[in-house]
Write a structure and sequence with these properties.
heterodimer, A: mainly alpha, three-stranded antiparallel sheet, two-stranded antiparallel ribbon, globular, B: mainly alpha, MetI-like fold, cell membrane (chain B), AA_ABC_transptr_permease_3TM (chain B), transmembrane helix (chain B)
Chain lengths: 410, 432
């Protein structure tokens, strides 16, 4: 297509054919056509939607969120009964999703970093073992792993009665770990934390400690850059821990209530029970995502060339300083972006909770609520919106981070 | 050696000394062990720990695998054969439900040869695309394959497949005649020609529905691992061209087109696949004209294709961004217009860079096809969770079934990822 783009050779008057043949106008033409097409498609789908809803006698409204849900949820961190509204059920689901995603990200990072470093180890056997772990988990669908680990968790664990002492009269079949933890077929029993009066102050002390530790670090860096004097690092830990410990010792707001194996003859009383669905999903997501993180960590460490280590050593830095000041900053720049997208993947994969019966947002809002109310369109839209908000938030964080660590070029 | 030193140097060796074997203290199994496993106390502890882990894993796994029962009709019979407290697994479920695991429970058994043949042909058709050394003539098979596979798996008269192929060929001929006078003209004329041929073909097929007809099989009858393979192959192949268009759109300088592509890609990438499958299952029907009745597998293919194309678009965008700026400028300075420069200069290079990433997306997508079991389709995982584990005979045979599913997926995905690494090494030889 011979395009005429030289303005001098033509008279300036506008002709219709220029819309297609002149590169100055052609872009506008194509965009206009694309816009019309999009509007047309949207209108077509919208009209179909309206007529389909009318035929089925449905209306598009979110009123159902105020109705009582009428179903029970096995794990709810906020108070919830079957008489609560669908909206509250959805909130329970949101909290459960965020909970498993948060815990999953933490453990997946620990597993992944360990496996990634060990895979680079000079120990042949360990390196090969980690390679087997990574390949086994990366090449099998996450749903199958969730089902396998879900089955393992479901069939394991003793009956809670095995731990009971019946008022001290019976020798229990199994001892609780440290007298506080027990894995039973009803879930994992652990001590519960009671928030007594003044717990807000303890929380504030914790926050103050964290802020103080940051400030000390900054002070250390400023002194280092200003005078070349390296202040000791240990006060960081004291500033971090001391306020919260002192506040707790003075006020005594937080207390633990241990699972009680004596008072009841049928079940363990008190404490916190972490449900099996949560444990299954959490473990499965952690080991699955851990395999991917291990690969990212490995790639990041390998991306720092050996010359960097050698050059740092030649400057006279001690091995730990080499790691902290030279290798890690460069490796982290490579590791963190894919790491964050793995966190995102983990959060999205947590929507498979339904396979092990964990009540996340997909299982409550997209599962039972959808089936009970028949409001498919509304529920799925809301569900997508929730995940979209999380993803966009995480990518926003990632963009900020990327901008802060990007190589500063000229 | 040069002559100048011939007198002053007493002796100059003129041939290489052959390679000497390493000193005796540096070779042998024991040295290898010490270097690789026991070089210091920390590594020694790690090694012992690893040995223990391997022992625990194998001592559980090997008796289970080797002592397994392969011939029985139910789990009770299995346990009787194995005896009290035996460690062997009950693999009889695999032999008894073999066909169900592979083809689903309602695909007619006399037609099992058809998907099997389609799978074999897939290997032939994929070979020239995957391996540059395979003769180019096989590309004909690749071209015909989609139509042949449709004919084999879904059945019906062969005329449907022939007419569809004819439409593509006519469309391509028209396109190649007109592409010199502008890409857009050639493209739209080609599409129009293909649609005309398909319309005519529709009448012909309707008039002669029994020419070389295979028994027609509904998509809802497909299941098992075959369903995973169909979904994986169809969706990846369909999402490639869409992904390319989306990537180009996102790189485009036209704001509206760029904006549309960005919103689409970010939306799809921001939501989990399972919500898109919910859309396919319960929502998509609301957006289709009243009275249309797509079957579920088609709706699922649409949604998974959209999902995959967004991810592939991102991979290709990476490839486009990795190309040096000079390639774009070089194409422009040659006087090529946008379509020509993309088609002839940019895309061939960008796609080559993106191949490993595309393969990764394909592996991920193939694994994700198991998610259809959640919207109660009977793929491999759906078959296991539904009809097989729920049946009286095999209730409780978890490890054998899940292990088998994991094994099948592992073989395919590990194979593809090894291929991808091989390809990366092949591509790394040239200069970039």
């Amino acid at each position: 297509m011979a395009s005429i783009s030289d303005p001098q050779s033509q008279q300036d008057s506008f002709r219709l054919s220029m819309l297609l043949n002149d590169t100055r106008y052609r872009g506008l033409t194509f965009q206009f056509i694309a816009l019309i097409l999009i509007i047309f498609v949207m209108a077509y789908l919208g009209m179909n939607l309206v007529s389909n809803l009318a035929t089925a006698g449905l209306t598009f409204s979110y009123d159902f969120l105020g109705d009582p849900a009428g179903y029970d949820i096995n794990q709810a961190l906020i108070s919830y009964t079957s008489q609560s509204t669908h909206l509250r059920a959805a909130f329970v689901g949101v909290i459960n999703t965020l909970l498993v995603a948060l815990f999953g990200c933490i453990t997946a990072t620990i597993i992944g970093v360990t496996a990634g470093v060990l895979r680079l180890s000079k120990n042949w056997l360990v390196a090969k073992l980690m390679a087997v772990y990574v390949e086994a988990f990366r090449n099998v669908p996450v749903l199958i792993w969730i089902l396998i680990i879900g089955t393992i968790v479901t069939i394991s664990g003793a009956n809670p009665r095995a731990f009971l002492t019946r008022g001290g009269s019976v020798e229990p079949e199994s001892e609780m770990l440290f007298g506080a933890f027990a894995f039973t077929n009803r879930g994992f029993y652990s001590p519960a934390v009671n928030f007594g009066p003044g717990w807000i102050i303890v929380l504030l002390a914790l926050i103050a400690g964290i802020v103080g530790a940051f400030l000390w670090r900054r002070h250390m860096r400023k002194t280092l850059y200003a005078s070349g004097k390296l202040l000791p690092g240990w006060p960081t830990w004291i500033i971090l821990i001391a306020p919260v410990v002192i506040a707790q010792l003075v006020l005594g707001s937080l207390s633990l209530s241990m699972p009680d194996v004596e008072s009841n003859n049928f079940n363990i009383q008190g404490g916190t029970v972490i449900g099996k669905p949560f444990i299954a999903l959490w473990l499965a997501l952690s080991v699955y995502t851990g395999a991917f993180i291990a690969e990212n960590v490995r790639a990041g460490i390998m991306a720092v060339s050996k010359g960097q280590t050698e050059a740092a050593a030649a400057l006279g830095l001690r091995p730990r300083r080499v790691m902290n000041l030279v290798i890690l900053p460069q490796a982290l720049r490579v590791i963190i972006p894919p790491l964050i997208s793995q966190y995102l993947n983990l959060t999205k994969n947590s929507s498979l909770a339904i396979a092990v019966g964990y009540a996340d947002i997909t299982a409550t809002l997209g599962g039972i609520t959808l089936n009970q109310t028949g409001k498919a369109l509304e529920c799925v839209l809301l569900l997508m919106l929730f995940y979209l908000v999380i993803s966009l938030a995480i990518s926003a964080i990632m963009n900020v981070y990327n901008a802060s660590v990007a190589l500063k070029e000229r | 050696m040069s002559d100048t030193h011939a007198e002053s140097v007493a002796y100059v060796r003129e041939t290489f000394v052959g390679e000497q074997p390493p000193p005796a203290q540096e070779t042998g199994a024991l040295i290898w062990l010490r270097k690789n496993l026991f070089s210091n106390w920390f590594y020694s502890i790690l090694t012992l720990l690893a040995l223990y882990v391997i022992y625990v894993l194998l001592s559980g796994f090997l008796p289970w695998l080797l002592g397994g029962v392969w011939e029985a009709s139910s789990i009770r019979e299995c346990r009787e054969i194995a005896g009290e407290g035996a460690a062997g697994g009950c693999f009889a479920v695999l032999s008894e439900r073999w066909n169900q695991l592979l083809f689903g429970f309602s695909y007619p058994s006399e037609a099992y040869w058809r998907p099997t043949l389609a799978l074999v042909l897939l290997a032939v058709a994929a070979a020239p695309v995957l391996f540059p050394k395979v003769p180019r003539a096989l590309l004909i098979v690749t071209l015909i394959y989609p139509f042949a596979a449709y004919y084999l798996i879904w059945g019906g008269t062969i005329l449907i497949a022939v007419m569809a192929l004819l439409g593509v060929i006519v469309g391509y001929i028209v396109y190649s005649r007109l592409v010199d006078r502008g890409f857009a003209l050639g493209f739209f004329a080609g599409v129009a020609a293909a649609i005309i041929v398909w319309q005519i073909g529709g009448f012909i097929t309707a008039a002669a529905p029994n020419v070389l007809a295979l028994t027609e099989i509904q998509s809802r009858d497909m299941g098992g691992f075959m369903l995973n393979l169909i979904l994986g192959v169809v969706c990846v192949s369909l999402s490639l061209p869409i992904g390319i268009v989306l990537a180009l759109g996102r790189q485009s300088s036209l704001p509206i087109i760029k904006w549309i592509c960005v919103v689409f890609i970010e939306f799809i990438r921001g939501v989990p696949l399972i919500t898109l499958l919910f859309v396919a299952n319960v929502v998509l029907a609301y957006f289709l004209p009243p009275g249309t009745n797509f079957d579920l597998i088609l709706r699922v293919i649409i949604m998974i294709t959209m999902f995959a194309s967004a991810y592939i678009a991102e991979v290709i965008r990476g490839g486009l961004a990795a190309l040096p700026r000079g390639q774009y400028e070089g194409a422009e300075s040659l006087g090529l217009d946008y379509a020509q420069s993309m088609r002839l200069i940019i895309l061939p290079q960008a796609l080559k860079i993106s191949i490993p990433g595309i393969v990764n997306v394909a592996v991920g997508l193939f694994k994700d096809t198991t998610l259809v079991s959640i919207i109660s389709m009977f793929d491999l995982v759906g078959m296991i969770r539904g009809p097989i584990l729920a049946s009286q005979d095999w209730n409780g045979v978890y490890w054998e079934l899940y292990g088998f599913a994991a094994f099948l997926f592992f073989i395919v995905c590990y194979g593809i990822s090894q291929y991808s690494q091989w390809l990366e090494r092949q591509l790394a030889t040239d200069h970039r």
